[in-house]
Protein: DUF340 domain-containing protein
Amino acid sequence: MFTSALLILAPLFLGFAFALSDRRLMTVIHYLVEALVYFILALLGLGLGQMDGLLNQLGTMAGQVGGLVFALLLANLAGLWLFHRWQPMDTGTADQGNRPGYGRLFLAGLKPLVAVFLGALLGLFVFPALPMVEDLATWSLMLLLFLIGLQLRNAGLSLRKLLMNRQGLGIATALVLSSLVAGLALIPWLGVPWHQALALASGFGWYSLSGIMIGDALGPAWGGVAFLNDVLREIIALALIPLVIHARPAVAIGYGGATSMDFTLPVIRSSGGLACVPVAIASGFLLSFLSPVLMGIFLSFE
Structure:
């Protein structure tokens, strides 16, 4: 299992090793990443639809997702609040004149759920025995990680500045530690070994990654649980950020997890101001690297 975990992680670091200067190529990579994400989510749904007794397990899965979301929400808010008390952050004055359309953002947040739902319908009614779905999802994920590594390297960001951003590093650390505490507390509720509970708690909002990695290791039902937990984090973050970012910026930035450097960044920028942007990018960047590393390590245990 450890070898397979390294195989999954290698493309991310390989992609980060290449510096590109062609903007048109980076645009192509951007659209390819977006298409791959939805393709992988559809494959995740397809695997769920092919699962024996799926309809009978939906109630159990709903309880597991609810426990994960609730425990992580409480633990993350507590950990990030403590970090804010220790290292308060001044957001300055936000730019109120260019707020994004929150209705549009929420609809965009639902698109991953639609991709998985459509894939599940295909697996349930059209392709109940389609072979090679798991292998195709794994290779697609490896390609996605390679392309994301390219994006991270070529985003015009200094790795040194990201790693040395004190607020971003502290927020990422607080989120990781509080998530792992929540994972350990959930062991009796989830009924899984400690390392599997910690892997489930280590998605940090990266639903296309966690759904496939957990699904490959623990089966499609747990892959669905991991996906729903992380996509709900993103949706909750969209509602939470404008409400708390001025009083508790670390809480607003941190709870978005890995999405703070991409999907939730426009909301952080418009609600919290420019001062929040480098912190959000640094935190999201670090969590984007830590998520596959931690999941790979925890899933390597027997």
Notes: The first helix runs from residue 2 to 16. The chain has one domain: 2-299.
